[in-house]
Amino acid sequence: MKKYDYDDSLATGAVAAGGTLGILIPPSIGFVVYGIITEQSIGKMFMAGIIPGIILTIGFALAAYLQCVINPNLGPKSEKFTARQIAQSIFDIWPVGALFAAVIGGIYSGILTPTEAGGVGASGALLIALFAKGFNRHKLFEALLEATMTSAMIFTILIGVGLLGYFITLTDLPLSFANFLNTLDVSRYVIYALILLLYLILGMVMNIIPMMLLTLPILFPTVVGLGFDPIWFGVIMVIMMEMGQITPPVGINVFVIHGVAKKYNVAMSTIYRGIVPFVFVEILVIIVLTIFPDIVLWLPNSMNTLATLD
Description:
The protein is mainly alpha-helical. Helix content is 77%, strand content 0%. Helix 2 (29-38) packs across helix 10, helix 3 packs across helix 11 (230-245) and helix 9 crosses helix 11 (230-245). The chain is globular. It starts with 7 loop residues before the first helix and ends with a helix. The model is unreliable at 306-310 (pLDDT under 50).
């Protein structure tokens, strides 16, 4: 994106927002942890995340496109490509598409457990790299070295986030908030909105897994008691966590992007400015999924239909 002179805010905002999709589009560690804690089917959770993940991806793409339409300087026009070149570029990514189909298809058909599917995905990715054009030991070493440096930076950030999360746990804020919700005599959607607000705030300062471990045992019975579908709520909760990962004052993804883009002298404020349109997209998607929950539940419910036919 620097090569094609994209604006820093658009480039970093798109990467920061797009980086959150990994916890929504399966296989997702967030759904695995949610399924274990709430005793829900992990396979159904994976299926539930596919359509919302596609909708959110399209929404992010439209947000980037509309910004460039409004202000063409954000994303200058690139060179023209022929239909043949476009078709060839799509064909070139077939190994990734095949790997995705193998992982998700294995889970959906019941051939693979989520853990086994993760192993298949990792092994398949390495296999694709081995047969990629220009791959050699030198590039493998460079990739491993860069991955190690990035991982060290991310884990340093996560250590700080973990300390902050531990502090929040000691304050009993989540427990106090849950007790407060149980005392309210209001519409269930008001309580639902307050729960989403809690997850947005916690997502700003905590990692996903500790946040789930801390809050779900307390809030999940309340959510189910209000009549909300547990599979649907899991997807909504993960989207809220995505939003928290890119929202000030912390936003873990923003810090990671800032660390990677430091060599380009990209300011933190530039990244935060770039993620604003994508946050609005996430809010819009949550509203749509709340009004039309069947968007989330269609694929999981189809698994029940297939099981009945069998």
